[in-house]
Amino acid sequence: MPRYYDHIPDNLAQWAMAQPLFSTASAPISGQHINISPKGLPSSTFTIFNPNSCAYIDVTGSGAETISHIYENGRVTLMFCSFASSPRIMRFFCKGSVIEWDNPLFDTYLNKMSKAKVDGARAVILLDVWKVQTSCGYGVPRLGKTIKGDLEKHPEVSFEDRETLGHWAGKQVEKGEMLRYQMENNARSLDGVPGLKTARRDLGERLWWTDLTAGLNRIRQQREALYFGICLGVLLAWATRFGVAVLAS
């Protein structure tokens, strides 16, 4: 079952810093692309300042999706997951800001993070963490070793199935609990957007009404476009009246 926090608990902060990598996810307000970027070694590039604030050093890469999206809307999610024997996934839901390499605050934050300057570093990404989520991580493979030949000379790293997710699902089906679990956990996204239709139907929803309401909410949430349309309409109306008045005179 997922658990939620309004801050980063100390034990989870220590766990995050011990992981071999983390990933960032971001998206523009409009457009078709959702970006996911893996980041290496939190111990070298990532710092947790306090339970609601963290930062990472962003190194020059083939794109600048995360930076672009943060500049546009500030939304970014960090994900950590365990490849060790104990499974876990953890997400930080954040509002971000960008401190580029030529900003006087760049070196200030590197010092605050106690990090050495990384070759090719282009920015420090500051993150205000407003929600933390943990979940089981059963679907993430475990990192193991496949031995070929000599045990000491030829250990080969490989990923192994945890054999936990399917086992858990099978138990839920056997107990007749899967549909109830889906109703409780799969009917809505974290933002309240309608999810699995079968779960919503089992909850007794009228799907057409829920989908219509969700569509109207999407329109309502585009406030900037709405305000721009109103202002443009007022401007055009004024321009039309002014033009008619000039012609009449």
Automatic annotation (TrEMBL):
Official protein name in the record: Pyridoxamine 5'-phosphate oxidase N-terminal domain-containing protein
Family annotation (InterPro entries): Pyridox_Oxase_N, Split_barrel_FMN-bd
Domain Pyridoxamine 5'-phosphate oxidase N-terminal: start-end pairs: 37-136
Matches recorded under Pfam families: PNPOx_N
Transmembrane residue ranges: 225-248
The keyword Chloroplast appears for this protein: no
Keywords tagged on the record: Membrane, Transmembrane, Transmembrane helix
